[in-house]
Amino acid sequence: MGCNKKEVLHLNETDNRKEVKRKFALWIKQSTIDMVEGIYKEDNCSSRSEFIEKAIIFYVGYLSSNDNSQYLPNVVTSTLKSIVAESDNRMSRLIFKLAVELAMTMNIIASSQDIDKMTLTKLRGECVKEVKRLNGSFSFDDAYYWQKG
User: Fold this and answer.
1) pTM attached to this predicted model
2) What pLDDT sits at residue 84?
3) Between residues 67 and 96, which one has the greater pLDDT?
4) Beta-sheet pairing, 18-24 with 3-11
5) C-alpha distances in angstroms, 30 versus 25, 75, 85, 130?
6) What is the CA radius of gyration of the chain?
């Protein structure tokens, strides 16, 4: 594979410097060309050559990674991080709203009931045991049966 005299300057996307692209002979099966023809536009590539170059860069990254079975492109990793961050943000907002509603409920109950400090301490201990026993899924029905049972 010798380089042809035709050379084109291109901006290197990773470090913003100009890099020469060189034309060379490539021996490739027709079935592989057909695969590339059918998909390169879906990858936002302007040509088959651009698609093949991106595929080579990806494969070199895959081969040079420490554990080939764990190789994920940066795009996938950053996408997953964004999804997790957004999910975490949504969950935090929901937990905050639930805490506000729970605080309101506790204040309403505390204002209408006459419970001494010792009873409250014992109740907290029993509730911790009950919630542990039910593995955190304690419902109003559970509290009703526990109080009436």
Assistant:
1) 0.41
2) 93
3) 96
4) antiparallel
5) 15, 30, 44, 68
6) 31
Statement: residue 12 has pLDDT above 60: no
71: left (phi over 0), alpha (psi -120 to 50) or beta: beta
d(CA 52, CA 119): 73
Task: Give me the pLDDT at residue 71, please.
Answer: 58
- Please, what is the average pLDDT of the chain? 82
Dihedral angle, C-alpha 134, 86, 98, 122, nearest 10 °: 40
Question: Which residue did the predictor score with more confidence, 14 or 130?
Answer: 130
**Single-letter residue type at 98:** L
What pLDDT sits at residue 22?
A: 85
Separation of alpha carbons 19 and 8, rounded Å: 8
**3-class secondary structure per residue, the chain:** CCEEEEEEEEECCCCCCEEEEEEECCCCCHHHHHHHHHHHHHHCCCCHHHHHHHHHHHHHHHHHCCCHHHCCCHHHHHHHHHHHHHHHHHHHHHHHHHHHHHHHHHHHHHHHCCCCHHHHHHHHHHHHHHHHHCCCCCCHHHHHHHHHC
The mean pLDDT value for 79-85 works out to: 89
Amino acid (one-letter) located at 27: W
